[in-house]
Amino acid sequence: MRIAVLLSAGRHPVSGAPVLPRLEAQAIRLAVGLGEAHEVVGLHAGPDAAAVAEGLGQGLARIEHLTVAAEADPVPALAARLAALAPDLILAGRRGQGGPETGLVPYGLAEALDLPLIPDVIGLAPEAADRLSLDQSLGRGARRRVILGGPVLATVHPDAPAPLAYAYGRARRGAFEPVAVAPVEVSPGLAAEAGALPAIEERPYRRRPKLVKGAPAGGSAAERLKAATGEAGASAGGRLLVQPDPDEAAREILAYLRQVGVLAAPRPTDDPR
Amino acid sequence: MTGPVSLTTVFPGLVWAMAALALVQVLRRAALWRAGAAASVPWLSGLASLPRRYLVDVHHVVARDGYASRMHAVVAGGMLAASLLTALAILPPLGGFRPYWGVVAAAFGVMAAGSLMVGARRYPVKKPRLSAGRFQILPFLLLAYALGGTLTALLLALGAGGIALPFTLALAAAGGLGLAFEVRHGPMRHAAAGALHLVAHPRPGRFAGRPDTALQPLDLDAPRLGAEMPADFTWNRLLSYDACVSCGRCETACPAFAAGQPLNPKKLIQDLVAGLSPAEPAYAGAPYPGGRDAMGGRGALIELVGPEARIHPDTLWSCTTCRACVEECPMMIEHVDAVVSLRRSQTLELGALPEKAVGPVTELRQAGEAGGRPLAARTDFAAGLDLPVLAPRGRTDVLLWLGEGAYDLRYGRSLRALVRLLRQAGVDFAVLGPEERDTGDLARRLGDEATFQALAKANIATLAARDFGRIVTADPHALHALRNEYPAFGGRYAVMHHTAFLLELIRAGRLAPGRLSDVSVTYHDPCYLARYNGETEAPRAVLDAIGVSRVEMARSGRRAMCCGGGGGAPVSDVPGERRIPDLRMAQAAETGAGIVAVACPSCTAMLEGVPDRKAEIRDIAELLLQAVEAGR
Ligand code: SF4
Ligand code: SF4
Predict the structure, then answer these.
(1) Domain residues for B425?
(2) CA B319 to ligand 1 centroid distance, Å
(3) Which of B293, B547, B576, B577 has the smallest C-beta neighbourhood within 10 Å, fewest atoms?
(4) What single-letter DSSP state applies at residue A81?
(5) Is the Cβ of A52 closer than 8 Å to some Cβ of chain B?
(6) Nearest C-alpha of chain A: how many angstroms from B435?
(7) pLDDT tens for each residue of B85-144
(8) Of A139, A153, A168, whose CA–CA distance to A3 is shortest?
(9) In terms of domains, do B498 and B584 share one?
(10) Is residue A241 a part of any domain in this protein?
C-alpha cells in the first residue's frame, strides 16, 4: 500500500518556533505504524521544505517538496501530484497549526481527486483484501470504525497516538525530493478578488473564559458539572435528524447557528424568500 | 631425578611461564579491544602517573571497605613480591643462596594469609554483592600457589627436598598457572586490564584532583551517533569494562537497584563485557531486579540494547545518572558515560526514547522549555518581588539563573527566599527573564545531544550579549551544565551554587542570620553538586552558621544517595518495586531530624512527593531567610 502524508508549515503554539504540526506528526505515526511493507511518503507544498524537516526525524524516510508560493493555494499542486502518485491512503491533519489553519485543504483535495474523506481518524489497521479499517473519534470518547477499500483521504484527530520521538540521526538520513510543479494559472478575477480582501488585523490569541450557557448558578456540584460538560441542558438537547432532506438539514443548521449567535438573525429585506 | 639444584631453576621458570601465559591471555583479550573505535590516549603521562593513580586514587576508594583493602594489600602485595623474588632467582647467585629462599617463603606466606582472607569473604557464605562463578575458585587458586610457593621456597631454603619437592612445586604450578590462565576470562583479568585502564583512562582529569564529570560532546556529524554495539565504544572504554572485578560496590550504591528497578550497574558493565567477548563465562552475580533472563548475542557488532537484546531499554532508562556507582567503583569505571553513550544511540538514531519522555524532550526542542510553558512565565514565581531583568548589553554583578524549578509552585518559594536574601544583602543581581532557555540538561542525560547542543548554543549567544560578573544558580543541574559542559561549546563562566554564594555573603557580614538552635536538620546532598562538583561543605557551613543542630545521614557527602530526580528518570518513570525518594526519606527519618535541608529543585520535588513524610523539606535558602528574619 502506498500512503501519502500531507505536511504543512506550522508554529509552536507557545514559542512560535517553526515546527511540524503535531497532528501531522501523529499522522506519520499512524502511517508508519502500519508496518514496513507499506510505502510512506510525505508531501509538502510551500516555499521552503525546511519547514517540514522534522517529519524526517519523526518517521518519514522521504518527503516530496512541491514549490508553491507562500500565499498561493496549495490544493492544485497537491492534487496534481497526488493524482500522479495515486496513493491508497492520504493522511492529513484535521487543520494546520499556526499557519493558515483553514482546515479546508483536505476537503479541497478530496473534491479535486473525487475521493471519500474520513475525518478525525485516531487509528488505522489493514484489513483483508487491501481494505483499511479506520477508527474515527466522534468526540466525548465515542468512536466509530469504518472499513473500506482505498483510495481514501483521512484527517487525523488529536486523540490519535502521540507523535514518535524525533530522531536526529534519522532526520539526517532522510531525503527531500523536489518535484516540479506545473505553474498554476491564477485567473485575473481571483487575483483581483484576493487584492480586494479587507485588511486583516492580527492580534495574539487570548484565551477567554468559556461561558456555559444556561449553567445553574446554584445546585449541587454534580449538577453544575453536568451542565458544564454538556451531559444535560442546552448542548444535549439537540434534535437528531436521520437522513434528512438536504434543504431541511440546511435550514436546521442555519437555525442552530442563529440560535447560538454565529449568524445574525435574518433581516426581512435580505431574505430572498 | 630432580635435585634441589635444578629445582632452583625450575621454580623461577614456573613464574616466568606464568608471566608468559598471562601475557598471552592479555594479548588474546586485547584483540577484542581493537574492535573499539580509536581514542587519543596520552600514553606517556598515563604511564608516568600509573603508580600515583593506583596508590592514591584507587586506594582512596578501596579503603572505604577496610577488610577489602587489607585483604588486597596482603594478597596482591604478597603475590607480587613473592613472584618477583622467585622470578629473579633464575639468576644462579640468587637461586643458589639459601637464605634468599627464606625471604621468598616469607613473601609467599604473606600471600597465603591473604588468600585465606579472600576465601573468608566467599566461604562458607558469599557476601551478597560479590559474584560467584569463576570467582569462587579464586581463593583455591591463590591458596594453591601461595602454599605451594611457601613450601617449595621453604624446602629450598632448608636445602631439604627430595620426594616432597615435586609435589609442592606441582601445587604451586597448578595454582600459579591457573591464575595466569584466568587473566583472559576470570577474576585475574581485573589486575591486567585494571592497570592498563589506569594508564589509558578516558577521563584523566579525575586523577588531577578536579571533578572531571562533564559528558563529552558528541560530534553530530559523525557517521554513527552514540553506541549501538560494542564496536561503537572507544577501545579504552572496552578495556575499562574488562577491568570490572565484579565486586558489586556499584550495585550496593545504586538507587535504582535499591528501588527494584531493572538496573544493576555491575550487571550492566558485565553485559558490555559479555556482549563483546565471544566466550565469556556466564554471569554469576545479582541479576537486574525483575529477574529478566540472560539473552542477546555476542560479538563486536551485535545490538546491545533492545527488548530482545542483552540490555533491556528499561534498564537503560532507569539510571538517574547519579554517579554513585562511579564514585564507588575501585576500578574507576565510568558507568554514566556508558549509559549515556547507549542512550545517545537509542535517542538520536532510533528515536527510541521512553514514551513518557518524548513530550518533554519535544517541548525542549521546540519551545526551549521541557513543560512547553512560555519562557516569560519563568519569573511568575516572583510576582510582587522586584526582580530586574538583564537586557542585552546590560550589566550586573550577579546573574541569577533560575532554571526549570522556577515554574514549580513549591520551588518558587525557595527562589523567593533566595531573591529576598539577595535583596537583604544588597547584591546587584538580575535575571535573563524570557531570554533564559533551559540549559538542556534533561535532553543531554536522555541522550538527545542535538537538542542539548542547540540549547547550549542559544544560551551561550544570549549570555555573550550581556555583561555580568558571575552566574549564581540554585539548580545544581543547571550549575553543572553551565560550569562544566558549556565550556566545550565556548561558554566559560564563573558559576556558583546559591549555597556557596550565601555562605560568602554571611562570611562577608552582608547577611547577619540569627540562630535557629531548636531545629534539627539533616542535609541531603544533591548528586550534581556533591559528586559532580565536589561541593559538600558550603551548604553545611551555612547550616552551621544559623546554629541548627545538624545530623548526618548514613550516606552523605560524595557518597550520598540520589533522590531519584536526575538523568530524566522522573520523566522516563520506569516502574520498580519501591520509589527512590521513599528510600531516601526513610534514611533521613533514621536521623530523627525534623527538617531535611535540600539545595536542588529536583530533590525538593522528589522528596516533597514522598507520602507519609515525617520531616519537612526546606531549601537552605528558606532556612537562612528564616534565620535572618529571626535575627532582626
Ligand atoms: S548512575 Fe546512579 S542510577 Fe545510574 S547506574 Fe550508577 S548508581 Fe545506578
Ligand atoms: S563496575 Fe566497578 S564497582 Fe561495579 S562491580 Fe565492577 S569493579 Fe566493582
Answers:
(1) 368-507
(2) 5
(3) B293
(4) H
(5) no
(6) 12
(7) 999 988 888 888 888 999 999 999 999 999 999 999 998 888 889 988 888 999 999 999
(8) A153
(9) no
(10) no
